[in-house]
UniProtKB/TrEMBL annotation:
<dbReference type="GO" id="GO:0005886">
    <property type="term" value="C:plasma membrane"/>
</dbReference>
<keyword id="KW-0997">Cell inner membrane</keyword>
<keyword id="KW-0067">ATP-binding</keyword>
<dbReference type="GO" id="GO:0016887">
    <property type="term" value="F:ATP hydrolysis activity"/>
</dbReference>
<feature type="domain" description="ABC transporter">
    <location>
        <begin position="10"/>
        <end position="257"/>
    </location>
</feature>
<dbReference type="Pfam" id="PF00005">
    <property type="entry name" value="ABC_tran"/>
</dbReference>
<keyword id="KW-0813">Transport</keyword>
<keyword id="KW-0472">Membrane</keyword>
<keyword id="KW-1278">Translocase</keyword>
<protein>
    <submittedName>
        <fullName>Peptide ABC transporter ATPase</fullName>
    </submittedName>
</protein>
<dbReference type="GO" id="GO:0005524">
    <property type="term" value="F:ATP binding"/>
</dbReference>
<dbReference type="InterPro" id="IPR050388">
    <property type="entry name" value="ABC_Ni/Peptide_Import"/>
</dbReference>
<dbReference type="InterPro" id="IPR017871">
    <property type="entry name" value="ABC_transporter-like_CS"/>
</dbReference>
<comment type="similarity">
    <text>Belongs to the ABC transporter superfamily.</text>
</comment>
<dbReference type="InterPro" id="IPR003439">
    <property type="entry name" value="ABC_transporter-like_ATP-bd"/>
</dbReference>
<keyword id="KW-1003">Cell membrane</keyword>
<dbReference type="InterPro" id="IPR003593">
    <property type="entry name" value="AAA+_ATPase"/>
</dbReference>
Length: 274
């Protein structure tokens, strides 16, 4: 794909990082290098503790205080994040990066109706916040009865609905890089495919890059161009999805593929469910 030959939107080179806690030092990333092209859908897979969340937080320069980068650099749209001041980092985050949360209900303010949250998030972006525009926004993420949903509090919506709202808020900013850390982990199997379809549709439409952290190799096979396999903080294998999953080269990838059975392909692709 020609888009993938252009300058990377994310470039991680030789990145090492460690957590320092009272219990000691944990090496979380070990010399990780990774380029992601505009429009590319990249899955980062690996067992728990392999460094997936740490790498995604490093890309957004959102690492917890206890985590220190000990070597390497992260470039986002050509800019070295470490060389930027806090205001500029916030600007890159706001203008170029979108995060889709793992727990969408927790990402919403429990004390505010959905409508108010949308208004507060969209107004600073100069986006319209009148009732018709908000209804249209919710329809774009396939929320049925949007007028009713606008009046609800977060505890009154399902996890799938909350994730649609989170996606609507994220894609309204039209980020060029979307980071999704297990965006369907807290959802019922039934709504997972719909949520992933929404994310992928946005990426395809906008030409954004997607970094998708996932344990779901069946879904990764279905949607992603490339798979990056992490183990103990290092990348052990990276390549086109079908090649990595069907003919893994690294011993660890073979174990991973054998241990996590792929989900059956969704039989109801395209079918809209409530
Ligand atoms: N806040 C923290 N304090 C101390 N160590 C941490 C912290 N967060 C992560 N680690 C350690 O860093 C390493 C990488 O963790 P990370 O969360 O990046 O892995 P992961 O692949 O995202 O795991 P999971 O799939 O469970 O989310 C692990 O050894 C983990 O125990």
């Amino acid at each position: 794909m020609t888009a993938h030959e252009s300058a990377p939107s994310v470039s991680v080179s030789g990145l090492s990082a460690e957590y320092r806690t009272r219990l000691g030092v944990t090496r979380a990333l070990d010399d990780v290098s990774l380029d992601i092209a505009p429009g590319e859908l990249v899955a980062v897979v690996g067992e728990s503790g392999s460094g997936k969340t740490t790498i995604s937080q490093a890309i957004g320069r959102m690492l917890p205080r206890s985590c220190r980068i000990t070597a390497g650099e992260v470039r986002v749209l050509g800019r070295d994040l470490a060389s930027l001041g806090p205001d500029e980092v916030r600007r890159v985050r706001r203008e170029s990066l979108g995060f889709i949360p793992q727990d969408p209900i927790a990402s919403l303010n429990p004390t505010m109706r959905i409508r108010r949250q949308l208004e507060l998030a969209l107004a600073p972006l100069g986006r319209p916040t009148d009732a018709d525009s908000l209804v249209e926004l919710l329809r774009s993420v396939r929320i049925l009865e949007p007028e009713r949903v606008l009046r609800l509090f977060p505890h009154e919506v399902s996890g799938g609905m909350a994730q649609r709202i989170a996606i609507a808020l994220t894609i309204a900013r039209e980020p060029s890089i979307l980071i999704a850390d297990e965006p369907t982990a807290s959802l019922d199997a039934q709504v997972r495919d719909e949520i992933l379809e929404l994310i992928v549709a946005f990426v395809r439409r906008s030409g954004a890059s997607l970094i998708w952290i996932s344990h779901d190799l069946g879904a990764v096979r279905r949607w992603c161009d490339r798979v990056v396999v992490m183990h103990r903080g290092a990348i052990v294998e990276s390549g086109p999805t079908a090649r990595v999953l069907d003919a893994p080269e690294a011993k660890y990838t073979r174990t991973l593929v054998a241990a996590i059975p792929a989900r059956p392909r969704a039989s109801r692709e395209g079918e809209e469910r409530a």
